Amino acid sequence: MDKIDSAIRYGRMIARHLQGELTPAEQEELQQWLGEDENNHKLLETFHDEEFVQSGLSTLHSIDKNEAWDKISRKLDLPISIRRRPGYRAYWWAAAILLVTLSAGGWFLLQQSVTTPGTQVSVTRTHSPAEILPGTDKATLTLSDGTTINLDSAQNGQLASQGAARILKHEDGSLVYKVSGKTGEEIIYNTVSTPRGGQYRLTLPDGSRVWLNAASEIRFPAVFASDERQVEIKGEVYFEVEKAFDKQKRKLPFIVQVNEMKVEVLGTHFNINAYADEVAAKTTLLEGSVKVLSGTSQHELVPGEQANVRPNESVKVLADVDVEEVMAWKDGLFNFSNADIHGIMRQVSRWYDVDVRYTAEVPARTFSGKIRRSANLTNVLMILEKSGIHFKVEGKNIVVSP
Prior knowledge:
Layout: H1 3-18, H2 24-36, H3 38-46, H4 50-60, H5 65-75, H6 80-83, H7 86-89, H8 92-103, H9 108-111, E1 136-137, E2 140-142, E3 148-150, E4 157-162, E5 165-169, E6 175-179, E7 189-193, E8 198-203, E9 209-212, E10 217-221, E11 229-240, E12 254-258, E13 261-265, E14 269-274, E15 281-287, E16 290-294, E17 297-301, E18 306-309, E19 316-318, H10 323-326, E20 333-340, H11 341-352, E21 355-358, E22 366-372, H12 377-384, E23 390-394, E24 397-401
Parallel strand pairs: 1-8, 6-8, 11-12, 21-24
Antiparallel strand pairs: 2-3, 2-7, 4-5, 5-6, 7-10, 8-9, 9-11, 10-11, 11-14, 12-13, 13-16, 14-15, 15-18, 16-17, 18-19, 20-22, 23-24
Helix pairs in contact: 1-8, 2-3, 5-8
């Protein structure tokens, strides 16, 4: 029997055993398998632990099943033809059961590919009974006169008007600015902001589309000026900028102001991460071209490049950055590549609206892997505890210890 057939067979057998559905012959075969390796017996005992099973089932909802299958396929050294066979992919969980057995405590393989070689899974069951849920689509719109509108609870349809702009909430929950008639000369500003635990998307008056990550903000004119388009942001924002022209058919620049940094574009897709608690403001270009200016320093990016700007320093450019990692937040993922625990926990803090406290200096380890942002906080911490670092949830606080 090859590895994948064995995985599927014993995976099914364990499941049927737990439901009391094994035939006498199958029961005898299972007993023989249990006697072949002490770890096999330990695995079966683990699945009798109701708390373990419940947390495991909950975690399964948070993982990328295709990636899990690919990881398991590589671990089992399966041929490419088998890896791509649809029927086998449906039984990735069965293969994972065998992997748990083979790796003695490798339940982590079921969860994600956050890897720290040589460490032992240690899930501390001290989390708060009140589960902390992931963030959702929510934001606040502040009009020019200071009026605020809670966008996640607002009804669909027209919410307000600002000069020549009508502000609409679409059925998909996004905010859209529609400009009609004479725009006039007066520039009035609106602000959309997300709290910790929130994200939002909107369409600006020129048709450009914007996505806000948690704890972020964009300030913009309700109607853009005739000679330029300028916005200000905080936190992390992704832009898909529409090309625009003035009456003389000249291209109108689109300018993003972030503290002392300025990003100038015409029509392009890019992401800016400029949280105050991060070391540098990062502008990553996906399509088109942008110019990043800071003080007397400037640099024009090409797709795949990232400009890093630190206070009182010139622009530094990184080539061939992992765009998938940068844009993971927009795609509903945490994507870590050699990330330290402090950087990871800053993301966790923003998305789950929690504060993080460290009891001591944590080991200098890095993490790589993907976790769905739809996962509950407990599941994320279970995955991260693979490193040997421990977490305790106290209300809306996470205590991190070595």
